[in-house]
Amino acid sequence: MANYTAADIKALRERTGAGMMDVKKALDEANGDMDKAIEAIRIKGLKGAAKREGRSAAEGLVTAKVVGGTTGYLVEVNAETDFVAKSDKFVALAEKVLEVAVAAEVDSLEALLAADVEGKKLEDYVTEEAAVLGEKVVVRRIAKVTGGYVDAYLHKTSKDLPAQVGVLVAVDADSDAAKTAAHDVAVHAAAIVPTYLTRDEVPAETVENERRIAEETAKAEGKPEQAMPKIIEGRTNAFFKEHVLVDQPFAKDPKQTVAKVLEAAGTNAVGFARFRVGN
């Protein structure tokens, strides 16, 4: 007769996130010893890691932290299903990844995965935790943004899931007005999806391609040759207004650009990052 109770099963499920049958089997094999049962669950999960390697990890969450008001970190961690993505254990794992990123002050995925956590690389630590969760878990990306003030905004696309969208916006001032504007712009960026901060960040080849498309489209529409320069310029500017954060019409007041909103607050945007899970 197994020497463990229903309370032991419940406790082990809460500690590992493993299913009922896996927990009971592990307790049977460990003769009720909780630590040995946890070890058995981990070993079983690690053996299955290779089988999970090719699976898609398109669910997950985004989490963020601002340090000292001037440095922001944004991390995306993925799982295979939303069931795991909203579990306490997965959320705790993502927060651990963020904690490591902040402590190591990293700004690249490579550096984050190589960072130390409990005497091992973060990449190995995540693999072990994924073994317990029973799904492929991927630390997908990280962003680090600095400025006079950094605002972090996390948005839930579903009330039942963790934040799926995360934004960092850095400005060059830390007045109350600048802080309010930075937050408003972060909320704007969550909804409007900018790709670049300024026009200077748009690759030259991208601009050239947009101009070429604008010209070919205008010709196909039968526009007069003398009007081409103005048409090309106008359509290229439309591209900037769609994709460049400071050129976008501000979500709360489309008559103003984001740049004008920041200018009115006595500040300028100096950096931003935006993640949406799976995109």
Write the layout of secondary structure elements.
Elements: H1 6-16, H2 20-29, H3 34-47, H4 49-52, E1 59-67, E2 71-79, H5 82-85, H6 88-104, H7 109-114, E3 116-117, E4 120-121, H8 122-133, E5 138-146, E6 149-155, E7 165-171, H9 176-192, H10 204-220, H11 228-243, E8 249-250, E9 253-257, H12 258-264, E10 269-276
Antiparallel strand pairs: 1-2, 2-5, 3-4, 6-7, 7-10, 8-9
Task: Write up what this structure looks like.
Residues 72-278 form the Translation elongation factor EFTs/EF1B dimerisation domain. The chain has 279 residues and is of the alpha+beta class. It folds into 3 domains: 6-47, Helicase, Ruva Protein, domain 3; 59-198 and 246-276, Tetrahydropterin Synthase, Chain A; 203-243, GTP Cyclohydrolase I, Chain A, domain 1 (Orthogonal Bundle). It contains 12 helices and 10 strands. It has helices at residues 6-16, 20-29, 34-47, 49-52, 82-85, 88-104, 109-114, 122-133, 176-192, 204-220, 228-243, 258-264; strands spanning 59-67, 71-79, 116-117, 120-121, 138-146, 149-155, 165-171, 249-250, 253-257, 269-276. The strands form 4 sheets. The chain has a 3-stranded antiparallel beta sheet. A 3-stranded antiparallel beta sheet has the order 6-7-10, covered by helices on one side. Helix 1 packs across helix 3. Residues 46-53 have low confidence and may be disordered.
Structural class estimated from helices and strands: alpha+beta
Assigned CATH architecture of the largest domain:
2-Layer Sandwich
Given the C-alpha coordinates, what overall shape results? Answer: elongated
Number of structural domains: 3
Helical fraction equals: 40-55%
Using only C-alpha atoms, the radius of gyration works out to: 24 Å
Query: What's the level 1 CATH class of the largest domain?
Result: Alpha Beta
Subcellular location: Cytoplasm
InterPro entries: EF-Ts_dimer_sf (IPR036402), Transl_elong_EFTs/EF1B (IPR001816), Transl_elong_EFTs/EF1B_dimer (IPR014039), Transl_elong_Ts_CS (IPR018101), UBA-like_sf (IPR009060)
Keywords: Cytoplasm, Elongation factor, Protein biosynthesis
Family: Belongs to the EF-Ts family.
